[in-house]
Write a structure and sequence with these properties.
Structural class: alpha+beta
Distance between the termini: 5 Å
Strand order of the largest sheet: 1-4
Shape: elongated
Order of helices and strands: EHHEEHE
Helix content: 40-55%
Strand content: 15-25%
Largest sheet: 2 strands, antiparallel
């Protein structure tokens, strides 16, 4: 008994050159902007907590003050901070937020320039065809 089977398979694969690299640069810019945004939010919280005279012995307030203090070292004493009673307006922290925002944009653009590739109009197409002829007794 003869059993013939003819199997034909065609695969078409399209790849866009540079897609992986563009995806990684996009993720790197997202991580950069997220990191700087979290830092700026914490500095803004510090400004608000100092402005309302929050208790520095409170664990959450102490955590925010401690974490943001190391990022504010370059700006300490840059601008005099007006005080009234227990309230402090940290103008150097406001200045730090502006500087960190500009730094975030600069890093984002730098990552984009170094790692991004323009979108290509050309795609490579690979086609595979398999013919299988079998004769079975």
């Amino acid at each position: 008994m003869l059993n013939e089977s003819n199997v034909t398979e065609a695969k078409s694969v399209q790849r866009e050159p540079g897609l992986t690299r563009r995806f990684l640069s996009f993720k790197a810019t997202q991580i950069t902007l997220l990191s700087f945004s979290i830092l700026e939010i914490l500095i803004a919280l510090r400004i608000i907590l100092k402005l309302i005279g929050a208790n520095p012995d409170n664990p959450i307030v102490a955590l925010i003050y401690g974490f943001t203090a190391m990022f504010l070292i370059p700006f300490v004493g840059l601008i005099k901070s007006p005080t009234t009673g227990g309230m402090i307006l940290e103008t150097s922290s406001i200045f730090a937020i502006v500087i960190y925002a500009l730094t975030a944009v600069a890093f984002e653009k730098l990552i984009w320039v170094i790692f991004s590739r323009p979108r290509s109009l050309e795609t490579s197409v690979t086609e595979t065809t398999i013919n299988d002829n079998q004769t079975m007794p």
